């Protein structure tokens, strides 16, 4: 997200199509009585890092699940707060009267603010081809190289 916010490279079309690293996290709890509604996910600072992004106030953005234009109209879901091992998901900029379209046990993909920091916490990368007919099917596993 930081690379997009700083225009670190030129993009054609939707810049989110160029984000290669996502973090998969499970929704653990829903807080439907809160205004705005929130959800607890099993990924926090240890997974996403603590670095902010200049383009929004959050620690990651939920990848769209449906048409991209739906997020523009209805707002995107962001990681609005984080603790060491958990994050809170909510609509960006409010959404007080809107139902959060998530359920307990659901896996969500998060675009982290900084891919290098987020990627450093994992020993393996599960590779998928998001342009294929099975965009969530793992087609390869890359072992992270450590050391300089």
TrEMBL record:
Record-annotated D-serine dehydratase-like domain positions: 20-129
InterPro entries: D-amino_acid_metab_enzyme (IPR051466), D-ser_dehydrat-like_dom (IPR026956), D-ser_dehydrat-like_sf (IPR042208)
GO term, biological process aspect, one: D-serine catabolic process
A molecular-function term among this protein's GO annotations: D-serine ammonia-lyase activity
Gene3D superfamilies: D-serine dehydratase-like domain (2.40.37.20)
Pfam families membership: D-ser_dehydrat
Domain of life assignment: Eukaryota
SMART domains in the cross-refs: D-ser_dehydrat (SM01119)
PANTHER family reported for this sequence: D-SERINE DEHYDRATASE (PTHR28004:SF2), ZGC:162816-RELATED (PTHR28004)
Protein name as catalogued: D-serine dehydratase-like domain-containing protein
Native species: Endocarpon pusillum
């Amino acid at each position: 997200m930081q690379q997009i916010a700083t225009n670190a490279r030129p993009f054609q079309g939707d810049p989110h199509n160029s984000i290669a690293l996502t973090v998969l996290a499970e929704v653990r709890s829903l807080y439907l009585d809160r205004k705005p509604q929130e959800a607890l996910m099993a990924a926090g600072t240890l997974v996403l890092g603590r670095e902010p992004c200049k383009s929004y106030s959050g620690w990651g953005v939920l990848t769209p699940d449906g048409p991209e234009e739906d997020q523009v109209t209805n707002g995107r879901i962001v990681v609005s707060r984080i603790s060491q091992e958990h994050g809170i998901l909510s609509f960006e900029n409010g959404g007080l009267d809107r139902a959060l379209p998530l359920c307990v046990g659901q896996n969500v993909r998060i675009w982290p603010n900084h891919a290098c920091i987020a990627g450093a916490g994992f020993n393996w990368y599960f590779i998928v081809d998001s342009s294929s007919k099975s965009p969530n099917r793992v087609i390869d596993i890359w072992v992270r190289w450590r050391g300089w």
